[in-house]
Amino acid sequence: MLPTDSFATRVLDWFDRHGRKDLPWQEDASPYRVWVSEIMLQQTQVKTVIPYFQRFMANFPSVQLLSAAKLDQVLHLWTGLGYYARARNLHRTAGIICDDLSGEFPGSVEALCELPGIGRSTAGAIRTIAFGKPATILDGNVKRVVARYAAVTGWPGKAAVSKRLWQIADSYTPSSRTGDFSQAMMDLGATVCTRATPACHQCPLEKDCEASINGEQANYPGSKPRKSLPVKAATFLIIRAQNGEVWLERRPLYGLWGGLWCFPELTQAEDPTAWCLDRWALEPVAEAWSGFRHSFSHYHLDIQPILLTLPGIPETIMEQGQQLWYNLRQPPEIGLAAPVARLLARLEEHSPRDG
Question: What are phi and psi of 320, to 5 degrees?
Fold first, then answer.
């Protein structure tokens, strides 16, 4: 393998010629902007993140404005991006920075890692890209580059494998231009050393990469042990009042879709009509919609939507702030679970128009 200086020089030379330098979070790369982008980029591709980041910054251009915002506003802008704990942690961390740290991000990896939602790699990215200080990063793209280059066997989720990858990545991190180096390593993994069909002939490390030399790129990094995902089922009640508004309930803050607004969810054994009669003493007209599957990392959820049209307009919300009637024509800015947003869009398409 290459000496440390040679490794960094090759990567930085490649970055100067081919690296991405026009990503929106690279403009005015403040700790705040880098932090938000790194959280969004966790388990999410750049092309997906860009419009979300731009909308987020248009609404919350500073950590102070993010801290002052309601959680619903934050979750609304996050709708469709998934892994909503990231959004809740952003909001919580913004409050800590403004209330406890005088609005300033800490500069050390250790202090950054004490904030909710910030791990070692994200902290390293903030320190190197925003502060220009030496630190090591090891996101998914960098893990792939390092694992192939040094032929590190095993799934990176295992502690011993992760420790070895961190040691190697740290040994190759230079003491200067660390922000460019961090971005270069991420770009190399995202655009050249890709998961499938890597473009090894374009890689500055090709001649010294163990996986490339041995034609074993597909073996690194090691795969997560496979296990079949369980399948769960739920009935979503799309309850529409006579005025066209739809009943939604806020999920508990922690757990599945924490803090988001969803349809009432029943088990297959529960009776939707009885649910409405018990709640409002109104008997709905029921229409079963085609079901669909929504998959999570740990299980599949088979969703059966049932449209329940009420013959009147029920009076009120029982627990203020936990239930609401959702106006399709003038939707409030709230966070919606992805399947809920999908079904609301379908309902809007089939709703009668005025005039």
Answer: -55, 130
**CA–CA separation, 309 and 329 (whole Å):** 17
Q: How confident is the model over 42-71, as pLDDT tens digits? A: 989 999 999 999 999 999 999 999 999 999
Catalytic positions: 38
Token pair for 141: 């793209």
Question: Distance (Å, rounded) from C-alpha 168 to C-alpha 170?
Answer: 5
Core vs surface per residue 305-317: b (16+ CB within 10 A) or e: bbbbebeeebeee
**What is the spatial distance between Cα 144 and Cα 150, in angstroms, rounded to a whole number?**
10
Coil, helix or strand for 240? Answer: strand
Cβ of 272: how many Cβ atoms within 10 Å? Answer: 20
Tell me the angle at which helices 85-100 and 71-78 cross, rounded to the nearest 10 degrees: 140
Element at 72 (helix H, strand E):
helix 71-78
Distance CA 179, CA 134 (A): 8
Tokens 């040094």 locate to 150
Instruction: Report DSSP state, residue 275.
Output: H
Residue found under tokens 């200080």: 133
> Could you tell me the CA-to-CA distances from 331 to 241, 311, 314, 339 in Å, in that order?
15, 22, 19, 16
CB atoms within 10 A of CB 70: 11
| pTM for the whole structure | 0.86
- Copy the structure tokens of residue 49: 């993140």
